[in-house]
Specification:
9 helices
Amino acid sequence: MTLRGTLRLPPRGFSLFANLYLAGTIIFGGGPVVIPLLREYVVAENWVSARDFLLGLAIIQAFPGPNFNFAVYLGTLAVGNTANPAVGAVIGFLAIFAPGLVLHTGTMGVWSVLRRYRWATSAIRGVNAAAVGLVYTAVYRLWEIGYVGADFKSGSSLGDDAWWVVVTATSFVGGRWFGVQAPVAILLGGAMGMIWYGVVSD
């Protein structure tokens, strides 16, 4: 992290590792929280276009596994012509997962002692509650940049078109009250997107 701030022209692979490692270090609250931060550290650096970022995010959400896997996709694109895409994928994977593994390994012994104290478990409950707020913040930020079209290559708010509000509400209500499984909700959203395309393209 010290080198990240002192090197004037670091190699792309080093900068990628440093940015994703930093993202993995300061994130608390689960996978959705890391997405806006990854966008800041990768898109703002002009390594990945906003369009590719959002398209990749949509693809990642359609598959099982943690959102941190998104870093592998970003690493592949971020290295560009400076290195083999497979190298970028490995860098992205190691950088995003390393902080959590180090923290987990280094604190488990301390936590086994602290968990006996009521004040420590209460503090963790408070941190978890704050993390839920971070998740909602992350979801809102994604909502504000989630629409990619011919006129909005950098992303615009999904709320600008009532149809996407309907798609979002359908997915939420179906999952929350009718037990619709995530794969079904994703396929339903894709079908509703195709309906929208069929209407506006005529």
